[in-house]
Target: TIGR03936 family radical SAM-associated protein
Amino acid sequence: MKVRIKFAKEGMMKFIGHLDIMRYFQKAIRRAELPIAYSGGFSPHMILSFAAPLGVGITSLGEYFDMELTKDLPTEEIRSRLDHEMVEGMRVLSARKVADGKASKAMSLVAAADYRITFREGYGFSDGWKEKVPAFFGQESIKIWRKTKRSEKETDIRPWIYRLETRGEDLWMLVSTGSVSNLKPELVMEALAAFLGEELPPFAFQVQREEVYADVGTDGDRDLKPLEELGEEIE
Model:
């Protein structure tokens, strides 16, 4: 039985790195006594697959991993048993059975993510910045200097920004995520600050990932679906 787990990472847990989160869930799965499947060979390991690792310092309401169980269980029971083992700052939001086929390969199909940018009290852009966001987003090209493993090069990130809007005092963005093109929200904020002619001090804003999407479109037509929707509840 292939199962997709959706979880939240909040509070002080945002400072825990991806590898430690993986180890944390391995221990939680054991404590929950879930019938997890193991790989073969001389060094068997749990069959787990995490989607789009989250950067340190970022909270999230839409993190995912897939795991394989040796027998079928009700998805709500899986969620409840695993959530019972969570510490403060971690919540298991849902469990879904994933059928064989395209949906079962969603981790490799991760294509986008929603982010909410919240400014810390006393920080942020000057008055009137929200009215300028549409003009920034409406540009044909948004070029920044982007660091690579070997050098730094100028990159047009506009094709990777799918949506950008203000909601109240917050900024929301839907950007490309995954192995092909992965756009960090901090780079969008850097470009927006340059467009506004301003400079934000370090730690001026908090980033929260809201959801992760897979692209299930065909023939080049983008069709983004939350990873959760590619599975089903079972009783």
Q: What stands out?
A: Residues 68 and 112 are 24 Å apart (CA to CA).
